[in-house]
Give the backbone structure.
Amino acid sequence: MRRRERSLTIGALSKRASVSERFLHELEAGRGNISVVRLCDVAQALGTTAAELLRKAEPESSNVIALLGMRGAGKSTVGPRLAARLKLPFVELDQLVEENAGMTLGEVFELQGEGFYRRLERETLRKFLRDTSGGVLATGGSIVSDAETFDLLKRSSTTVWLRARPEDHMERVLAQGDTRPMRNRTNAMAELKALLKARTPLYAQADHVVETHSMGIDGTVDFLAESISGEETAVAAN
């Protein structure tokens, strides 16, 4: 922590930054909210910048495997099986967002708008990464569209793109009994292909890319379990 690196007590920093000691205690515990102006005051008192403080406040890399992909990629199928193989909990980020919001995602978008959802998604992800020791996390298909949230995810987890063909996405969603993609939309497949094409360069930044169509569910789980376990062994050896 920057304050300890500079051998500053809470009291000394409080005086330098003109903020209360109680506020600093809350801030260091991750419970305080701070304005840009006050953050700059604290940063100046520590001889650094607000951007650097925010960067150091982000969670470090953890034992979290984050699954990427659009709806129908197989995240809710591969995720629980992979988690069981790795002896980790399986978590869906959208479910955590709904719990934090106290409403469904549809209601969040309808009542609060996309901007609110993006902020809530980022804060929910940050809290999850800070509070968990590990897990398999299924993310929303559009998480890669928010640069700040996607950067946080890439820095703090092992990312996996479950790559599938447009036809696979559509078939899997319909097989789940969800007919919304086709309802009153004669060009639904063309829209899906265009969206997948636009997101492909972002999804491709993942640490692992798995072709689920050719590997299947079991093959995908086997490949990822072996690859991730191998990485952890190599890290431990070093």
